[in-house]
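Lecture 7, part B: from sequences to assemblies.

Below are the input chains for today's worked example.
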Amino acid sequence: MYALPDNMPLQTKLLWAENGLLRKTNLFQVDRPRELELRTKMLQLHQKLALGTLGLIFTQGYLGFQLQDATTNYMELSDRHAALGKVAFGSYLTSAMLSYTAPPALRYNRKIDSIRIHRWLSIIHFTGMLALPYLGEKVSGPHDSIKSRDRALYIHRGIAVTTISTMALSALITFLPL
Amino acid sequence: MTVRFSFLYLMPFLLFGQTFEVNKSSKITYYGSHYTSDWQGHSSGVSGRIVYNAVNQIANSCSLRVDLTTFDSGNSNRDSNMLTYLDVFQYSDVLFVSNEISVEGINASIKGQLTFHGITKYLNLKADISFTDGFNAEGSFTILLSDYEVERPALLFKKIADEMKLKFHIVAK
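Predicted structure of the full complex, as structure tokens:
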């Protein structure tokens, strides 16, 4: 039972496998039961923080859509959108790291379950979240034409909607009985 | 503690009776509940013996052991979490021992001791039994996790329900 599962996710394997980074560098030396306690704490914090982050990102999305049609209050909304983006991004990364770096579970199913789908969806929204600040900069950055700005906005908006949708789906799926 | 468990486990077999070995067709199901969803976990990792007197059809005793790591709820994260909260490295099995089983027709009344999470409690169970093709027993009972000092896992600020229903289907040959 103390043996590590052989089918742990890639990022967990890189850190926590027999030859993983944390084992080789002796950065973290506790017994397996303590590792599991730590895992539980990290994942519980991940849940709570992720829920808060989802709220922030929905607000961010709302501000983003308001910004599209803004006229006189454009600068004010833009500043708010940028500031909230930084908070949401920080909160998201903290939550993601708590999950990605948690010690391995006692076992992992070989069949598809809700947690596996949750992990697959996380690859999509993690990639989206990393891309969004850059894409946001592209929207506000200098443009040769309105067409070029609209194109940057279209990409930013598309990635943002995909990211928010997969995050929401990812959260909902954890409540499934399977 | 181990000596006590071993004694409880072996004691029934010291009594005279026909012995049936519990086989892998046996199944234990637990029903968990949380405000977000209900779920169930199954285990076929049941082992043990039923000793019963074939002459007057009175089952004398039974000793059953279930390996907690064999429970599967279809969600590996939840299973892993449950095992962590059950301190499975320290208490890897659930043990049920009874030396007081009375049978009336297909109904059995079983008084026994359930050892779970290192704590032993007395239980009175009802089961439907049959002796066709070996020994079969089916029934259910409810426990409170707090009775066994199990800290309950939480999801989104709220812990799972303290009450847990368990269903058993024991097949022994």
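Note for the exam: Chain A has a mean pLDDT of 90. Keep this in mind when comparing with the next example.
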